[in-house]
Specification:
The structure holds 2 protein chains of 2 kinds. By secondary structure, chain A is of the alpha+beta class. Chain A has an 8-stranded antiparallel β-sheet, with helices on one face. In chain A, strands 8-9 form a two-stranded antiparallel ribbon. In chain A, helix 7 packs across helix 8 and helix 21 runs parallel beside helix 23. In chain B, strand 5, helix 6 and strand 6 form a beta-alpha-beta unit. Helices cover 35% and strands 15% of the residues of chain B. By secondary structure, chain B is of the alpha/beta class. In chain B, the strands form 3 sheets. In chain B, strands 3-2-1-4-5-6 form a 6-stranded mixed β-sheet, with helices on both faces. The chains are: A alpha+beta, B alpha/beta. At the A-B interface, helix 16, helix 17, helix 18 and helix 19 of A face helix 1, helix 2, helix 3 and helix 7 of B. Chain A: Belongs to the TFB1 family. Chain A: Its main location: nucleus.
Chain lengths: 606, 289
């Protein structure tokens, strides 16, 4: 940490002589210890509490430095130095420290903070996400990384200033992270198998949240029952117990027992009945199918199954007990239903924690689908029309004349040749050749003249030599001069730009300088008008950096080879001009400031 | 600019379609007489044919009311003799000029409003059609380019047609070279050469015209990759407005057909679409010519 210690005199107002002592400053605080150990004027102040610093002009009577706490009242710690060099070094030090401290938070609500505590600006709370985003951006963009290294790590700009102008880059990052949603497993988890314990008579079913979600998706009747019964009539555990009992009864071949129990316990009956929701859905689906097109959808689909068909689970044989209401599902039905659910995809993003929330979320999504379907009435109408059209026989119909819009070719004379006189006059159609007798010639004369020329050419034949040697020489020299002069001109016809012609290293240097200058100038111009000391310090730093780049540009311009010097100077010129404008502005502002401050009575300059 | 590789015949075989300006109104007052002009152009054509045995040259004359094919070196009759070529060209030119004068007499009876500009758009279209026919004749063709020997000023009423031909040439990758033998520059041909990648030249000395033609315009497309040819300093990109045919810098463009107007119109005169937006209150600044 940089430390500076100077012999000064501390005073509370300008007029008093002051207490001599030693002022030690480091980056966090300054300490003033008076020479006289008995004096009570010891100071130990953190820089966080100092808002700004004021100093008297170089060359005035006293070399004063005022570290202000409250900018309005002007109270602060005033130190008088023996000479201006000491004072200036202290002032610069304080300026740097204050600049660093005051620009670190970089928040607009910095103004409200001093009212609460005595001006303690908080360092910027960077969340982990923010840091990550910044690091990621820096990693991806090497240009940004270079700029960052050049300016922030060398202290010219602070982190917050650097990133303040790049908020859009940071903001966009979040939209790129789209999660890929995992779909349903293709294994039929809804088919819960118990594990039987051979010794005792217990049968264990295990249900994980994943399995529960699949059960809800595949068996809408169970889903509806869950929503209705839990938690109003029975607890979740009871519900699942009943469900598992129903499943167990289904598995066993004892249909009579199942029927008996279903008669007793109506909730259990729910699980053992046909799933009517599925039946409704299937019927609706069939109605929507275009009869002219889709031969697949027919009554053989789910739940409108034909009895005596299909393989039952566990290779049971259907013992034709159709009086009972116990539903038996064939293997193919189960598989089809599962496949349909898997293909529909997972519509939920809910975490698989709470069964109730999962159930509700599923119900919501199904409702949305239903409402969408209801609004498809016009689709139905269209389909009916299409059906009607497809079933008619083409040869038995009357011919239909296709309707077309007749071709309309506008008369080109209407818009091209109108006001040709104006055009001719405006263009100055008299710029012909050198002779003025053209307009007076009528057409016949002109054509006759041309024909005469042609016959003259015919009679003369080709000349020998075709062209005189001195004329040819003149032409050649003119052409070659023209070509060599256009070598350096960048007409719009050239396929390559000036940048491609200069050597690579120079080009890279120039591009890099250009981006650096852009960054610096952006910060420079945004800091005007200067209202706080922080901005003033920032401007100082930026100006110093710009001065360095200016030097480098001058060097490049002078050291480039003679072939490229012109182009390089053309490229460098706008950069130098921009920097010159910035410097000029800075100087004029400085002059204004010193001129203004001359009016102040006690010589304090801000 | 070389044409597509599939059409390459040999590297430096070229097909040159030269458009001769035979506007009598221009030639009557030109500093270079037409016979002198022919004395430069015809040897140039012969020299083109000499450069490569497979070269082909087509001459199209640009009149005031019509355009016509004058000479085609790829004809059945092998005219190896340069004199025969010369006399053939001249004879055809005579016929053409006679026809052109007759057609011209038919349309405008009076001679008070002479047609000052030649039908550049017509001859460009003829050239493009010929080249297209060559393209479709088989897979091996010479590389085509168009050379315009123009002297008459631009006719602003041909702006749209000329631009259409230029864009077609651009799509077919046919460079349009321009050699201006008149007094002033031609904006159309500047744009044509710029867009299609050709050479635009206005020779300072017209008595050395043959030398200019031989040095600059005889180069085939393959050699242009490594030869340095004269480039104009800038291109005059101004368009002419459709209502007054003035050349304008700033104007209004119809969003449907892209026709250009110098003043605000409620309805586009080319395509008939209406502009619903209210006219801006401030007038656009004066156009510079």
């Amino acid at each position: 940490m940089a430390v500076i210690s100077v012999a000064t005199r501390y005073k509370t107002t300008v007029k008093e002589p002051g207490v001599p002592g030693v002022l030690k400053m480091n980056e966090e605080r300054f300490v003033f210890v008076p020479n006289d150990p008995r004096s009570l004027m010891k100071l130990n102040v953190e820089f966080k509490n100092i808002k700004g610093h004021k100093f008297s002009k170089d060359g005035s009577k006293q070399a004063l430095l005022n570290l202000t706490q409250d900018p309005e009242k002007g109270t602060g710690y005033i130190f008088e130095f023996d000479n201006f060099t000491d004072r200036n070094s202290c002032r610069d030090f304080v300026g740097r420290v204050l600049g660093k401290l005051q620009s670190v938070p970089g928040r607009p609500n910095e103004q409200s903070v001093p009212e609460k505590s005595a001006g303690a600006p908080l360092p910027e709370q960077l969340s982990a996400i923010e840091m990550e985003r910044r690091i990621k951006l820096l990693r991806e963009d090497s240009e940004l990384l270079r700029l960052h290294k050049q300016f922030v790590l060398s202290g010219v700009l602070t982190e917050s200033e650097f990133w303040a102008t790049r908020k859009t880059l940071l903001g966009e990052d979040t939209t790129r992270m789209t999660k890929q949603r995992p779909g349903f497993k293709s294994a039929m988890l809804a088919d819960v198998r118990p594990s039987a314990d051979g010794r005792t008579n217990k049968v264990t079913f295990s249900l994980t949240p994943e399995i529960i979600q699949q059960i809800f998706a595949e068996k809408p009747a169970v889903h509806r029952a869950f929503l209705n019964l839990v938690p109003s009539k029975m607890s979740e555990k009871d519900f699942w117990t009943k469900y598992c009992r129903a499943e167990y009864l289904n598995r066993t071949r004892n249909a009579v027992v199942a029927a008996a129990e279903a008669a007793e316990d109506e909730e259990l009956a729910v699980f053992l009945k046909h799933d009517d929701i599925l039946a409704n859905e299937a019927r609706r689906k069939i109605r929507r199918v275009d009869p002219t097109l889709d031969m697949e959808a027919d009554e053989g689909d789910d739940y409108i199954h034909l009895p005596d068909h299909g393989i039952l689970r566990d290779a049971q044989k259907d013992t034709a007990e159709t009086e009972t209401e116990v539903s038996r599902r064939t293997l193919s039905q189960d598989l089809n239903r599962h496949a349909a659910v898997v293909l529909e995809g997972r519509a939920l993003d809910v975490e698989l924690g709470d069964t109730r929330t999962v159930a509700e979320a599923l119900a919501w999504s199904k409702q949305e689908l239903l409402s969408k379907e209801k609004s498809e009435e016009n689709v139905n109408l269209e389909k009916q029309e299409k059906v009607a059209r497809m079933t008619e026989l083409e040869d038995l119909q009357a011919p239909r004349n296709p309707q077309y819009a007749s071709l309309c070719i506008k008369d080109p004379r209407e818009y091209f040749d109108s006001q040709q006189a104006n055009a001719l006059r405006a263009l100055g159609g008299t710029e012909f050749g050198t002779n003025s007798l053209d307009l007076n010639l009528s057409k016949e004369e002109v054509y006759r003249h041309l024909k005469e020329q042609i016959s003259e050419a015919k009679s003369r034949g080709l000349r020998n030599p075709i062209i005189r040697p001195d004329t040819a020489l003149k032409v050649f020299s003119g052409l070659s001069q023209h070509l060599s002069s256009t070598r350096f001109q960048l007409g719009k016809n050239s396929q390559e730009s000036a940048l491609d012609r200069i050597p690579h290293r120079t080009k890279d240097d120039l591009m890099h300088h250009w981006t650096s200058i852009q960054e610096l100038l952006r910060h420079f111009w945004s800091s005007y008008p200067i209202t706080t000391a922080g901005l003033y310090n920032k401007v100082q730093r930026v100006k110093d950096a710009m001065g360095q780049i200016y030097q480098k540009l001058q060097e490049i311009k002078e050291s480039s080879q003679s072939d490229f010097r012109h182009q390089v100077s053309l490229l460098v010129q706008p950069m130098l001009q921009a920097l010159d404008a910035a410097f000029a502005h800075y100087d004029s502002e400085q002059q204004k400031r010193t001129a203004k401050s001359g009016a102040k009575p006690n010589g304090f300059v801000r | 600019m070389a044409s597509a590789p599939s059409k390459l015949y040999q590297d430096d075989v070229s097909l040159v379609v030269a458009l001769l300006d035979t506007n009598p109104f221009f030639w009557a007052a030109a500093s270079l007489p037409f016979s002198e002009f022919l004395h430069h152009v015809i040897p140039f054509i012969n020299s083109l044919l000499l450069l490569n045995q497979l070269n082909r040259v087509v001459l199209i004359a640009t009149g005031t009311s019509s355009c016509g094919y004058i000479f085609d070196s790829g004809d059945g009759n092998a005219s190896g003799n340069s004199n025969a070529v010369c006399s053939g060209i001249i004879k055809k030119l005579e016929d053409f000029v006679g026809k052109d004068s007759k057609i011209g007499k038919g349309s405008n009876g009076d001679g008070t409003r002479p047609a000052i500009s030649s039908l550049l758009s017509g001859s460009l279209s003829l050239a493009l059609c010929y080249i297209q026919r060559i393209f479709r004749s088989g897979t091996r063709h010479p590389q085509p380019r168009i050379l315009c020997l123009q002297g008459s000023p631009d006719g602003p009423e041909q702006y749209v047609a000329v631009m259409n031909s230029i864009f077609s040439a651009q799509r077919l990758m046919i460079p349009i070279d321009s050699c201006i033998v008149g007094a002033q520059h031609s904006a159309f041909l500047q744009q044509a050469s710029y867009i299609t990648g050709g050479v635009y030249l206005k020779p300072q000395q017209l008595d050395g015209l043959f030398q200019f033609l031989a040095a600059v315009f005889a180069t085939d497309l393959h050699s242009r990759n490594f030869l340095r040819l004269p480039k104009p300093a800038g291109v005059d990109f101004r368009a002419s407005c459709f209502c007054h045919k003035k050349t304008i810098d700033m104007g209004y463009v119809c969003s449907v057909c892209l026709s250009i107007f110098c003043k605000y119109h409620k309805k586009c005169s080319t395509c008939g679409s209406e502009f619903n937006q209210a006219a801006p209150d401030s007038t656009i600044p004066d156009q510079k010519h």
